[in-house]
Amino acid sequence: MTNQSDKAWGHMSPDKPMLERDVPASSQDLVVSGVFSSDPTKPSSAWIGIFVFGEDPLDFACLLFGGENNSPLTALIGSMVKGAWQDQGHFNTGFDVPFHLKLQKKGDEFTGYFKQKEGDAWKKIGNKT
Q: How far lies 119's CA from each of 32, 56, 85, 113, in Å?
């Protein structure tokens, strides 16, 4: 990932581990899910999760979890459209890693879900974006 030096967007920099997949441009509907962990188990000032990018690097949707100064884990859903951040909510999750996230795209709408462990029901995070 490349940090936009003029935007100071620290989530995207070459020193951060990532797994990248291309999605066909014709995909109107999409579901991305994963199990996430971190070391330490309560990340300090870090966000970990799923990004779905458009053609422009500053057009994306994201579903993340993180911690700030070892506080309880928080989930975040939002999007960036033409460089304008659209925050759809930060929510305390109340549990530790591993952490399951799912981002669902239907047309131009994204909805985020989380759960603590396999077998739990998915819980919606925030508003659609």
A: 17, 37, 33, 14
The dihedral sign for the CA sequence 22, 110, 12, 5: positive
Radius of gyration from C-alpha coordinates of the chain: 14
Residue 10 vs residue 115, higher pLDDT: 115
State the pTM of this model: 0.73
Distances (CA, A) of 10 to 4, 5, 50: 8, 9, 15
- Per the CB < 8 A criterion, the answer to whether 84 and 70 are in contact is no
- Domain coordinates in residue numbering, the chain: 35-117
Q: How far apart are CA 6 and CA 16, in angstroms?
A: 19
User: CA distances (Å), 1 to each of 8, 9, 41, 51, 58, in order?
Assistant: 13, 11, 23, 11, 12
Backbone angles phi, psi at 80, to 5 degrees: -120, 125
Distance between CA 71 and CA 90 in Å, rounded?
Answer: 13
For strands 46-53 and 123-125, give the pairing: unpaired
